[in-house]
Amino acid sequence: MATTPRRRAAAKATSKATSKASADASVPEDADAAEPPRAAGWETIVGAIGPKVREVRQLHGLSLQQLAARSEVSAAAIHKVERGDMVPTITTLLKLAAALGRPIGFFVDDAEWAGPVGVHLRAAERPVAPADWAPSADGVEAGAIAVPSERLRAGAVWAHIEPGGSSGDARSVRSGEELVLVVDGSLTVDIAGEVYRLERGDSLQFPADRPHSWRNTGRRAADVAWWYLHG
Fold this sequence. Notes:
Domain HTH cro/C1-type: 53-107
Pfam families: Cupin_2, HTH_3
Number of helices: 6
Helix content: 25-40%
Strand order of the largest sheet: 1-2-8-3-6
Shape: elongated
Strand content: 15-25%
CATH superfamily of the largest domain: Jelly Rolls
Number of strands: 8
GO molecular function: DNA binding; DNA-binding transcription factor activity
Number of domains: 2
CATH architecture of the largest domain: Sandwich
Protein name: Transcriptional regulator
Region (Disordered): 1-39
CATH class of the largest domain: Mainly Beta
């Protein structure tokens, strides 16, 4: 019997359907659930630049403004780099690397942070106290003895306060908590209207979001250590 064009087309369609069914049967059921492609290696490297800049800046006890002055890069730009909102140009990265005392390769190496476990601050190299610790302090000589970072959240300040020295007119308010230890001399601390007089060896812990101020009302200088933990 002669095969008509209609019968040939039907046979061809049946053959295609059979081939497709056979191919589908060989495909695993979870083929559509394949893992998404991994991020390119360069994305991981670029994404690590900001955290490394922030980590080293904090290890040096530098504020954004202080690093901006050292590097001639605006504080706003540094903030964006640290947050990952901006990828620095090679010129910007060179300036930041020089200001932070690190080779540029440190910031573009794909290895994870390999800094020391502990942070050793020598007395002769003690960084300045954080700008928000006591911005209007008078008669006070202070330096940081611990600097918060991505790994270590607590910070601390050592202060030598002359008689009459104080935190100034501004009453500090910040998140977290503080712990004050009088190593020598005495200190009067006002926390939201509650007044505490601390003598040598006394300590005082309080929530830092309450308005607080302090003054050396004694006749000799006081040495005081502050620990603070940002909330």
